Amino acid sequence: MVTLAQLRDTDLSALTGAAGAYDTLAGAFGQHVQAMDTEVTKHVLNSTWVGTAAGAANASLQRTSGRLDAAHTEMSAVSALLRQASEAFQLAQSKLQEALQEAQGAGLTVAEDGTVSWPAPSQAERHDPDYDTPQRARALAERICHAVTEADGADQKIAKLLDDLSARARTGTGLDPTQAAADRRSADELATGLSAAGWPPAGAAPTEVNSWWKGLTPDGQQRLIQAHPDLLGMRDGIPATARDQANRLNLAHLIDTYEHKPNPSDDDKQKLDGFRAIRQKLQERRNMVPPAFLLGVGEQGQGRGILSFGNPDTAKNVSAYVPGLGTTLSAVGGKDADRALNVWNAAHNADPTSATASMVWLGYDPPPGLEKLADGDTRPLDVTDTGRAAKGGAAYDTFMAALRATHEGTPAHLVALAHSYGSTTVGLGAQRPGGTGADDIILVGSPGTGATTASQLHIDPHHVWVGDAENDPVSHLPSKSRVSNDLGGALSGAPAGPLGILGGGYIADKMYDWFGPDNQLWFGQDPASQEFGANRFTVADGPENSFQSHSDYMTDPGEKDSKTLESVNNIGQIVAGRYDNVKTQGRR
Fold this sequence. Notes:
- The protein is α/β, with parallel strands linked by helices.
- Helix content is 52%, strand content 9%.
- It has 20 helices and twelve strands.
- The strands form three sheets. It has an eight-stranded mixed beta sheet, with helices on both faces.
- A hairpin with a 5-residue loop joins strand 3 (292-298) and strand 4.
- Helix 5 runs antiparallel to helix 6 (177-197) and helix 14 (387-406) packs across helix 15 (421-430).
- The longest helix has 54 residues, at 52-105.
- The protein is flat, with a radius of gyration of 30 Å.
- 43% of the residues are buried.
């Protein structure tokens, strides 16, 4: 059984050295196996030698080849097991050392059995309502016990499997290819289980994840970043600098993996394009102000990407922008990255004295673009439903809570910013218990949020802001009931809802005028309406009969006229908290 003293005092470098030695041994043996296969076995099998002796020789060589492969597999299993043992014990030791240092700094005494004691309180401490030494002691004792228990559990499991592998090496039973393959699976499964055992459970709150991370030594943190960048990079509650480091490592791995995928699907190709676009954006922004932080990248769903301009953990003003319909991973390194950077510039101009972080968050699967319908892909039809938005809203709320958990110093001014279907995503997230946790919510080009009033977004309605171009077709989509009752056969068989309206010539004919001003959009009350009760800031009307009106809210000011500039400037003023400088216009 592992004791506190053993975990505290053991030099684990020898275990790391043993893992490295087995890596070297397995690698060298693997070369011998390959040489045997290419220089002996295949040479004999491909020769013109025939007859009884030839058959016996071939069978013997194949058995030998199988035994050699099995031996190599067994060595690899030991190597993997020792590496995981080293990591598991170092992680537990890191947790213990951190707790012991905290106890020493607080004047507490830790006994060899893990018991924590403290001096008797003074007279002043007895009457101090903030005196919390007993509570701190109990919390530290729990952390110490957890670290030792974690190491002991890992030790028992690892020792058992190492004993089994050693026994098979002595008896020769490990030279059976089937047994060797089973042993390697057992080693991999144990390694996976040990990794998970030392981490916060799936679904843990960002505050819990952040507390766990802070409980590791810097060396322990770096070991995890190098060993598990894919798991850390998207974990809400890990600080921005660590996520950035992990995600850059994982990005390189993902690009290599997808570049070498046999027979990649169209979705695989789209993800690879996205990974490359993000890499390109990071390269472009190297050594520039503001610095870029890759807060998330992954292959889940249609691809995940979170890119921040500025460090959200140290910035005073932080905004997280959620894009909508048709957004692909490539946009995280393309147009949506540019939009987030435009917001950073506008907020910085509004308040040059305060640090700003502006990001694009693609942590969900928005419905694919309408052009996919031509290829027989029905997923764009999901834009008529809130299913994707609801899942995205829950993930966004967790991400926003993580920004709170990892922020250093005075809490940041946190802004939720969303465009198009992304506003539905943020709106549904805001209506969940606790909401987004943002100080301000900005909705632009919105087809509705699912809410009837701004007060349902778990925030003061005075801090809900709406940008709505008069010629934006999406922000004029009629309600489902009106489509059902009034549209009838006017669209000649086009699908119902937003797709049918757009596909049936809605933009060109401005058919929303026909429906009348009922202030109901596809996903509920019009956020720009009087009834919704939000602030409506000034934006350009946008060109008529063009979908461009839906895309100019965060456009690069250098590309558009001064009227278009008003939208992103107003967004910047809100992100900077300069509310008096926001230009407003009347609600519908």
